[in-house]
Amino acid sequence: MEQKYVDLHSHSTASDGTLTPTQLMQAASRGGLVGIALTDHDTGNGLKEAGAEARRLGLRFVPGVEISADYDIPGAVHILGHFIDPDAPGLLDMSRLLLEARNARNPRIIARLNEVGCRITMEQVEAIARENVPADQPVVIGRPHIARALLNAGCVSTIKQAFNVYLGEGGSAYFPKERLTPRQSIECIHNAGGLATLAHPTQLKVDRPHTQTIISFLAEAGLDGLEIWHADHTPKDSEFFMELARRYDLAPTGGSDFHGHNKADIALGRGRNNVRVPVEILDNLEARWRARQGARPVA
Q1: Which of 27, 70, 155, 200 maximizes the CB count within 10 A of its CB?
Q2: pLDDT by residue (tens digit) across 138-192?
Q3: Residues 60, 6: contact at Cβ < 8 Å?
Q4: Nearest to 90, CA basis, from 65, 108, 110, 73
Q5: Which letter does DSSP use for residue 123 in this model?
Q6: Domains of the chain: which residue ranges?
């Protein structure tokens, strides 16, 4: 029997991806996936559109979100929500507050870039973010859009260089953004009816004993799952994270973290290290969600 695959971590033009929610569902179908989660940064604006197209195509669709949490470590703590209600009041409030903070940060980044000789404008960045987004829909501007503006202006030769030199932590134009605590992020997802999972744990950028300590803390705070397979994970990474998932009773998840052209080396459903997430992982995640929330249909 042929193995079927899903992708439980992807982004659209509702945040910093380059495919619209509809185009993303179509790409998933063309790529032979049987299920997909849309997990845009800090917003569920694309979920209804994606869900409608997924139903038309016969895809299993998981409405999701990705929330950046504040934690005092070198790397990033990102909490994915799976099976969320995009209309949950708490989620809408969280999205509004975080997007307002993001929008306040972007002009500061661009002003600093101009100070160091990178002549780009907010209008140029907005035009990049607006590509493929209907005029009547809101757009979320993020650092990948600024990185593309830097690339277009000839200030960098790659998107990666833009983050290494200017936009990433330690870069000359980096400013932190407003974030929830990990516990607040998990509670927000639970209040929206979803499961909370830790995304790409290699991006914590700490050693394995410290990684285990953080995951133990998050499990105590209510974390439901752990992303085992990701574009940044080696097979040995995945083995280590699976061991932790078993130890702390966390549902294993996985996905490519697809962003389209903003991360051109990451393919939907495969990532960059041939990420392949069997459909049984979605079956298990959905069973855990139903046990937590009671049987209710997926959007």
Answers
A1: 200
A2: 777 888 899 999 999 999 999 989 999 999 888 999 988 778 899 999 999 999 9
A3: yes
A4: 65
A5: H
A6: 5-96+179-293, 102-167
The beta strands (E) that lie in 104-223 are given as 195-198
What is the predicted pLDDT for the residue at 294? 67
For 175, 215, 223, the CA distances from 100, given in Å and listed in that order, are 15, 29, 26
CATH of domain 102-167: 1.10.150.650
Place of tokens 């932190």: 176
Q: Which residues does 109 contact at the CB level (< 8 Å), separation at least 6? A: 143, 146, 167, 173, 174, 175
Q: Determine the Cα angle at 284 with ends 274 and 31, to 5°.
A: 35
* Residue 123 φ then ψ, to 5°: -65, -40
Separation of alpha carbons 21 and 57, rounded Å: 13
Strand partners, 78: 68
Residue written as token pair 């994270």: 241
CATH topology of domain 5-96+179-293: TIM Barrel (3.20.20)
